[in-house]
Known about the structure:
Strands 1, 2, 6, 7, 10, 11, 12, 13 and 14 form a nine-stranded mixed β-sheet that branches. Helix content is 40%, strand content 19%. By secondary structure, it is α+β, with helices and mostly antiparallel strands.
Amino acid sequence: MLDLTFDAPKPKVIAGAKHDWELVIGMEVHAQIASKAKLFSGASTQFGAEPNSNVAFVDAAMPGMLPVINEFCVEQAVRTGLGLKAQINLVSAFDRKNYFYPDLPQGYQISQLYHPIVGEGEVIVDMEPGIARRVRIERIHIEQDAGKSIHDMDPAMSFVDLNRTGVALMEIVSRPDIRGPEEAAAYVVKLRQILRYLGTCDGNMQNGNLRADVNVSVCRPGQYEKYQETQDFSHLGTRCEIKNMNSMRFIQMAIDYEARRQIGILEAGGSIDQETRLYDPDKNETRSMRSKEEAHDYRYFPCPDLLPLEIEQAWVDDIAASLPELPDEKKSRFVNEFGLSEYDAGVLTADTANAGYFENVVAACGDGKLAANWVINELFGRLKKEDHDITESPVSPAQLAGIIALIKSGDISGKIAKDLFEIVYTEGGDPAEIVDARGMKQVTDTGAIEKAVDEIIAANPAQVEKAQQNPKLAGWFVGQVMKATGGKANPAAVNQIVTAKLGL
């Protein structure tokens, strides 16, 4: 929304039994870095491999094995920071987060606490045309993922799969700027969109490649404004963290439940315990997982196996120069260059593949508005109905541009175009050749149209009288002519001739 002005949405207000309450939400999104190798080893990150097949000695914490940083993962984190308009720290450092992980053989996680690689940035979250939330990014740090504990294979034993152990993650931490469940889901959608544009994370939530921890608290109206003035978090109430959310719908449901739970406790005179909670979608409730640890409980200390990470500004500049056009810039360009509505531009830029398809259609037919209409309404509508995405489209950009070109040249009408689209979608082929072979060309010969109009007028004198008394009924004659010509008559010519023949 670079040159598009917007207003902030109003915060979500929940009416309690005694008072109104407002929501305050911060997000910690764990995004798996798109890399073929892990953060500190050369082991594969391939999803779905046989359990414990993608494990190097360092991942398994074998004695004497030392981590070696994957430069590409660092580059991907820097690229992400640049894409979020964030500060890139030329010096960062890794720490050991000491905590019991049954599926992390080291017994600690290598992360970044005190000196993250990326500092403050922002994400503009579009809610509706003209309404958006600016969410500040506090930091992005790199860390290794843990493995996976499996408890449902044996009634008496648990199993461990270390394939994910050591996979590189970016933890993207926001400020508490989000003010409602819908905004929280929209924030994750927008963040995932940016990451996909950048190519730094595939955003696949089903595979666990993008997960969100949601911090929720409630406050009375006016308290959030005091926090903004003072940056004193005590105005926002005690937060609870809901861990490992991987569904936009569940994020919204969990936030709504947790907010109402906290409101009930506060209005009953109780206090909120800062804790980590899990969301149960079957019961639609959150439940306590553990009391919330502070940093000292993890006993962080600098990782003795890794030197501070120093990068050069010239390297950062080279990465910045290679950034693709990002969603907000592309959306703004579509609005300004093609005259699209903000909504249509948003639909077309939601995914890089969608945007690329649309631009290829425009390049071939030269009409942005008509291309947007056909891509969004006809193609996307059909693909959605069949649960396909644009990469599975049986209609190529060149074929759709060919249909649009035939409309623009007057060779076919809008109705014929829809019939032609159906043929191309189901059977394939060149649109122009199909029109010629099947006799689908629009009738533009005014003599032929005039003959059809004369025949219908002569056969329906009563309808003529009605139309002359009420000109709106002339549409009936247009419909009859279109029917008589198999929908091939030029609608504009039919309208003009009917109007003239009826003396309207």
